[in-house]
Amino acid sequence: MTNCIFCKIIEGSIPSAKIYEDEHALAFMDIGPVTKGHALLIPKQHRENVYELTEEEASNLFAVVPKIANALKAEFEPAGMNLLQNNGAHAGQAVFHFHLHFIPRYDETDGFQ
Ligand code: 5GP
Ligand code: ZN
Fold this sequence. Notes:
The protein is 24% helix and 22% strand. It is an alpha+beta fold. The protein has one domain (5-105): HIT-like (HIT family, subunit A, 2-Layer Sandwich). It has a five-stranded antiparallel sheet, with helices on one face. It binds guanosine-5'-monophosphate and zinc ion. The site of guanosine-5'-monophosphate has 12 residues, from loops.
């Protein structure tokens, strides 16, 4: 998708702080972290939202979720972690390439509601 910022990150034409990559998926740090260590996981195939993901694509993507969560847990030592995923502008989606948020949580002052 030519106008998709996350496809450009996959291509490498927009830089990102990558933390995991395989043939199906890419994870990188969020440019506007809501807490320390906020990261995103995306499929390499452009899929706008959860409704467009095939079962196989979902399996390939979610297979690496524990690995990424554990890497962030080891690096940032949060007290907890939220996984979050928005579909549609009304649900808060701003980038229309499927992404799963990893939001490490620290204490009540960590800034995320
Ligand atoms: P959404 O609201 O669509 O669920 O979340 C989009 C996320 O993408 C936001 O947390 C935002 O900070 C992040 N984001 C938007 N543009 C970029 C970018 O160019 N690079 C990175 N690393 N993150 C981005
Ligand atoms: Zn895309």
